[in-house]
Amino acid sequence: MQEQDTINILISQILSKDDELVCLRQDNARIREEQREGNRQILEKLDKTLDELKSMRRDNKHLANQLSKALEDKVQAEKQSELLSSALEELKNLRASELFELEKQKRQLYGRKCSKLDVLLSDGHPPRGELMEKAINYMNTFWTQLFAYLNDGSYSIDNSIAERFIRPLAGERKNSLFFGSDRMAHVSAVYHTIISTCKMQGVSVLDYFKRFFSEIVKGRRDYEHLLPLTIGLE
Fold it and tell me: Which ranges of 122-141 would DSSP assign to H, the alpha helix?
């Protein structure tokens, strides 16, 4: 009987050891699984970090290429700017020399004309007719105005354009015989001047007068900006 009890005790101890061994195996398996899961997460983080590093390297390479291109463009722009500045400086010098030469020629021409006029006005000049004397005195009085075209290329050397545009006015003056008063003559001159200016600028006379009086009603009095060429009509 004692032997049987001893055997049962031994069997129960063996079974207990087996249960502990099973638990140990299960714990070992669980620890290994946790280690594998932890290693997998670490590997995933490492892979993600490597991808980010690769992306940053690509971005850095792209930025480096852009910076290199920007530097090349800057160097090219500086070279072009230097060439342009040099060309402008040469053009400026050339323009200055041309202007100096033109001014020199103008002074020479003006001097020759002055000397000729002095000869005509001198007391030792042979007598001339009354009309010639009147013309010489007129030229002497308006010498600066007569040669204003030398100072401004926009001036015409003669008044052929003005004469061409006042021809209708001369015809009207002959047809109407007289204007009745100095004031109406002045009004007629202003009227025909506006019409002729509109024709020269290619502006409709009717559209101009509509726009002009509309601006006057609004209170504008800046007449230099209300001319046919400055009022804004096309």
Answer: 130-141
Average pLDDT of the chain? 77
Rounded CA separation 96/218 (Å): 47
- Each residue's pLDDT tens digit, 82-113: 888 888 888 877 777 777 677 666 666 655 55
Distances (CA, A) of 105 to 60, 101, 111, 116, 144: 66, 6, 10, 17, 17
Kindly state the DSSP code that residue 218 receives in the 8-state scheme: T
Which residue has tokens 């204007």? 179
Q: To the nearest 10°, the Cα dihedral for 53, 55, 58, 60?
A: -70
Q: What is the distance, to the nearest Å, from the Cα of residue 198 to the centroid of all Cα atoms in its chain?
A: 31
The CA distance from 56 to 40, in Å, is: 24
Residue 88 CA: distances (Å) to CA of 78, 95, 97: 15, 10, 14
For 233, counting Cβ atoms within 10 Å of its Cβ (0-12 exposed, 13-18 middle, 19+ buried), the class is middle
